[in-house]
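Hello everyone,

My group is preparing for a crystallization screen and wants a predicted model to guide construct design. The compound we'll soak is pyridoxal-5'-phosphate. Before spending weeks at the bench, it would help to have a computed complex in hand. I've included the protein sequence and the ligand's SMILES below. Output in structure-token form would be ideal because that's what our pipeline reads.
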Amino acid sequence: MTTQDVIEQFDRFVIANYGRLPRVIVRAQGATMWDADGREYLDMFPGWAVSGIGHCHPRVVEAIRRQAGELIHVDNTFYSAPQGRLAQMLSERAFGGKLFFCNSGAEAVEAALKLARRATPDGRYKIVTMLGGFHGRTFGAITATAQPKYHQGFGPMLPGFKYVPFNDLDAAAAAVDDETAAVLIEPIQGEGGVRVAGEEYLRGLRALCDQRGVLLIFDEVQTGMGRTGDWFAYQHAGVVPDIMTLAKALGGGVSIGAMMATPQVAAALVPGTHASTFGGNALACAAGIAVIEAIEQESLLDNVEVMSDRARARLEQLAAKHPMIEEIRGRGLMIGIELNQPGQPVVDECLDRGLRINCTQQVVLRLAPPMTVTADQIDRAMAVLDDALTAVATVPARAE
Ligand SMILES: Cc1ncc(COP(=O)(O)O)c(C=O)c1O
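Reply:
Good plan to model first. Here are the tokens for the complex, ready for your pipeline.
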């Protein structure tokens, strides 16, 4: 089948709810993808941060192969070893919580919202979330997502949600009342434009929640599993949540989501209160175990720091050269470059030159290189970005 054949098939049989680039990807390895026409791409946004340790990491591939030959899925009526092992590995690397497994970020958020209501005293049902946040596309998750564009045409949203400005502790304090069950926040807003929550602010939220008997939920679907240079972004600030959501990079490309809660809070979910048919299946959990092993055995958290510094230094040079760069933000290998003009033309120019990046909120270029990225790949990506910025510039670049 040619690229055109596949696109025509999609046009006829697949719902057109995604804006897709006209390329058919047939193979990928690490930070490299190949399309059906034999073109190679350097992928600095693999799988929208799902392939956190790169495409088809050999340890993940091997773990999936091995597990598929033994047990792909057994329902949660029974115990299975990979689910227990992955739960222990995650718990020991985070705050000692207990795990519920599902299949996606939105489901993890739904689980967190349900648990928050159930684990707090009767009458507490309100959830405070942050303007510009993103938590997924199911009804609870889009209601939690305080961006009107995601609500349009789907109303009414769920009752009980209050939205406050990000990084504004006073606003959060004013929004919390005696009916509030939880405050939900991404430690770094990803889709919202790579906006980092201040450490003081996170500490303030923790204190606020403690004082008012409210649970603190960190959505680490995008920031978790090493992307920021620590296992979880909350660890930089030393602020421990009551509940944390994970997905994306957790399965190394296999769909899996997870919610971790402190044992005390987790106790509210007793048999029959919440479930997922596929959640915690042996195949996905085996992939998750392999991801954690790869991160540790290949010292990938250290690589995140080294490559982040390298990218950041080069980006500062690009910011000095290209007047369209307003700000560089992020942490570790979660990088946002805010422009003073639309970012999509830059993304398109990059793709034509064999580099895949992303743009969010119209003007923020987003890079989430795999944790396995090499110095050569970072340098190549920055060189292409430089060319792409030059190509779209309406104001000439400054001399370097
Ligand atoms: C912070 C955050 N939470 C939740 C989600 C939803 O995850 P999923 O698309 O797997 O449902 C996303 C997806 O981008 C996200 O970035």
